[in-house]
Amino acid sequence: MITPPGHDQITLTAPEGRHLCNDRQHRNLGRLAEAIVTFGQLGIPGTPREAFWPECWGRSYPMCGLCWKATREIAQQARPHLAIQDATQSSGSVTSRV
Ligand SMILES: [Zn+2]
Hints:
Elements lengths: L8 E5 L10 H6 L5 E5 L20 E4 L1 H14 L4 E5 L7 E3 L1
Parallel strand pairs: 1-4
Antiparallel strand pairs: 1-2, 2-3, 4-5
The chain binds zinc ion.
The site of zinc ion has 8 residues, from helix 2.
């Protein structure tokens, strides 16, 4: 059981079945997602400069390795205290890494 991501947290889960990458170009190429990326609340609402990708909060996106790497780099630059919960490894063990 994976807890939903909280403030400044992103959770990765393994895709169930086949999911195409969320990126339109990758989807057209048939590129499969390697992880489902769920965004917590990044930043603080009501402070526009601090709220990062509010349209993604609480939502999940299938991403291939390339897209996740790019997303993680951008998100970590914007939110240096970002915590990434990686639950993509089987057996349900959850490791946190920054
Ligand atoms: Zn992709």
